[in-house]
Design brief:
Length: 268
């Protein structure tokens, strides 16, 4: 019995020393990881990468470094790393099956961050949703609408959708269509519309302005107005031109036709 106890003492000391050394490696390793991640963030920020991409790279780096640290601590404690790999693999498979939708959004977020169809600050249109990109995460993208609502879009569906980026270019064309009656003088109407467009301070003078007969409808002539502005001036200019068209048409007695129904009552 005494011999057995004597044999256990060195083993117990070795176990205690291993635990102490493992804790020391763990504490030092966590500090080193924090410093490495802080340095990586500063480096990526100096490279002027997208905030969403920086966040993703930092998260991926943190996970990778934590895994390396865990394996190092496991080896110090004498644990079989092959067993740990098997457990982690099984757990990863189970989690992956349970979170298929989230993984699809994660993959979509990676594609968006790498391909950059839009960046924070862009105004995009996706289906019947449009707004300014406020934040791009690896799972969701947040848009801010003109009426100050937040729209959260899953990146998986967003990556598979047709995206219209209205602010990627340095100019945007304003298209306005207005109907006039057939008895109106088209040249006179074109001149009035041209004067309205020329009054806009936000119009890009180096770009052409088109005032055309867009369509001959069943009950009206559709006039088309096309000119160019900076993306930031699009909505304010469009609203202003629409209001001025109504005012100038009223002043010049130009009628904008509207749908109407004539009801005839027959007396029996």
């Amino acid at each position: 019995m005494i011999d057995y106890v004597r044999e256990l003492i060195p083993k117990g000391l070795d176990l205690v020393l291993s635990i102490v050394f493992a804790l020391l490696v763990l504490v030092v390793g966590l500090r080193i990881i924090n410093k490495l991640l802080k340095g990586l963030r500063n480096l990526l920020t100096k490279k002027e990468l997208e905030p969403g991409l920086i966040s993703f790279l930092i998260s991926a780096g943190r996970i990778l470094l934590y895994v390396v640290l865990i394996f190092a601590v496991a080896q110090i404690l004498g644990l079989a790393t092959s067993s740990i790999v098997a457990v982690v693999g099984s757990a990863g498979l189970a989690i992956g099956l349970a979170l298929q939708g989230s993984l699809a959004n994660f993959a979509g977020g990676v594609l968006l961050l790498l391909m950059k169809p839009f960046v924070v600050g862009d105004y995009i249109i996706v289906g019947d949703v449009e707004g300014t990109v406020k934040k791009i995460d690896v799972v969701y993208t947040t848009l801010g609408t003109n009426d100050n609502r937040a729209v959260i879009l899953p990146n998986g569906k967003l990556a598979d959708s047709n995206i219209i980026n209205a602010t990627r270019e340095d100019r945007r064309r304003v298209d306005i269509y207005v109907d006039i009656e057939y008895n109106e003088d088209v040249k006179r109407v074109r001149r009035i519309l041209k004067e309205i467009v020329d009054r806009q301070d936000t119009r890009l003078e180096e770009m052409d302005t088109d005032i055309v007969v867009y369509e001959l409808g069943e009950s009206s002539i559709k006039m088309g107005v096309r000119f160019w502005v900076r993306p930031d001036d699009y909505w304010s200019t469009r609203f202003q031109v629409l209001e001025q068209i109504k005012e100038d048409f009223d002043r010049n007695h130009i009628v904008i036709p509207f749908r109407q129904m004539d009801v005839h009552v027959r007396e029996s």
